[in-house]
Design brief:
Blueprint lengths: L7 H8 L3 H17 L5 E5 L5 H5 L4 E6 L13 E3 L12 E7 L10 H11 E9 L6 H15 L5 H12 L4 H9 L3 E9 H15 L4 H15 L8 E9 L7 H14 L8 H7 L10 H61 L2 H14 L1
Parallel strand pairs: 1-2, 1-4, 2-3, 4-5
Antiparallel strand pairs: 5-7, 6-7
């Protein structure tokens, strides 16, 4: 099943995904359809989220990941927990192996073994896609991390993801290609026009910070519908390494060339930052979260804050008055107690006087 054969509702569901996810998964689906066919046995290496199966509904997709996916992803139906550098599968177990944005999260010492395992379990084709250390990519990740930190708390998962990119070091494109070339013919496919990618990512997190999903999905749909094909060109944020392991089948370079030619011919081929300007001024947003609505909500919040502060100040004043009254009353009680004690002492002294004692004795005798 190709993209064109999906229903409008199915396409819309996929188009609303974050453009950075959509780009890599649709590219993988295109490559699988052009090489082994849509109903092939496919390994999604590092694919715990289960997204590839949504783009290849007729394929027999098995996903592996080193940990279980986070709850906001759809669960891969056949998830196998495994280390990508030591896969629990037989040689040539899958028609195609796909790994998307995973290699950069593998510790550098294990990356060669990771690529070797791909070549071992793939029978016919493999596709390795990730942000390699090409010019501008590390800087883009550093810039995006700084922006996200400014907008969100440090425990946002995206920050941890970018930290691994930066701290592990982005994989070397030439070295990775050479490693795969030991298994067959390899071609390179650029994906995610770098200047537009960074603008799109900043836009995504800007909209996400507003706290309303609808404008996020509307803008992602715009990006995915209009820019996916045009962004399969350089300078790119990520690259795909397409490996053919058999002697038959199309030349990997011919597939890469066809995608690049389509991108260059696309009416959106030229990339600039106008997209960022448009979206940040919210000219593309068609949702309830308009600027006026947001400002009204902010005004209500500010008024509620002022009223709460006023109420708190009034309560503090009332508490201060009550405390003063309590202290004054306590002083009055102490004064009355002192007067009572003094009177009791005077009474005791009077009752002990000899004349009083005689009168009391006489009174007792008369009472008899």
């Amino acid at each position: 099943m190709s993209w064109e054969t999906l229903t409008a509702a199915e396409q819309d569901h996929l188009l609303r995904r974050p453009f950075d996810h959509f780009a890599r998964y649709r590219l993988a689906a295109e490559v699988v359809e052009r090489t082994v066919g849509p109903d092939a046995r496919v390994l999604d290496l590092g694919g715990g989220p289960g997204t590839l199966a949504a783009f290849l509904p007729e394929a027999d997709v098995t996903a592996t990941d080193i940990v279980a996916p986070s709850s906001w992803h759809e669960q891969a139906p056949d998830l196998v927990l495994a280390d990508g550098a030591q896969l629990p599968f037989a040689d040539d177990a899958f028609d195609a192996v796909v790994t998307l944005d995973t290699l950069e999260h593998v510790v550098p010492a294990s990356r060669s073994s990771f690529l070797d395992e791909i070549g071992r379990v793939a029978a016919r084709w493999a596709l390795v896609v990730c942000p390699f250390g090409t010019p501008g990519v590390p800087d883009a990740d550093i810039a995006l991390r700084a922006y996200v930190r400014n907008r969100f708390a440090d425990d946002l998962p995206t920050i941890g993801i970018l930290n691994e990119h930066i701290n592990y070091g982005h994989p070397n494109l030439a070295a990775s290609r050479d490693r795969l070339a030991a298994f067959g013919l390899v071609a390179t496919i650029p994906s995610g026009r770098l200047d537009r990618w960074l603008a799109g990512m900043i836009t995504f997190f800007h909209l996400l910070s507003l706290g309303d999903d609808e404008p996020v999905e509307v803008v992602q749909r715009f990006l995915n519908r209009n820019l996916y094909e045009a962004d399969l060109q350089g300078p790119a944020y990520r690259h795909g390494l397409l490996l053919r392991l058999t002697d038959d089948g199309p030349d990997p370079q011919s597939i890469a060339d066809a995608l690049l030619e389509r991108a260059i011919a696309d009416p959106h081929a030229e990339a600039d930052l106008d997209l960022l300007r448009l979206v940040l001024t919210e000219e593309l947003i068609d949702s309830s979260a308009s600027q006026a609505d947001l400002q009204a909500r902010l005004d209500l919040t500010a008024e509620a804050e002022r009223q709460t502060r006023k109420n708190a100040e009034g309560l503090e004043q009332a508490l201060a008055v009550a405390e003063a009254e309590r202290v004054n009353l306590a002083a009055q009680i102490q004064e009355v107690q002192a007067q009572r004690d003094a009177l009791q002492a005077d009474l005791d002294r009077i009752m002990q006087h000899p004349a009083v004692r005689v009168r009391r004795a006489v009174k007792r005798l008369l009472d008899r």
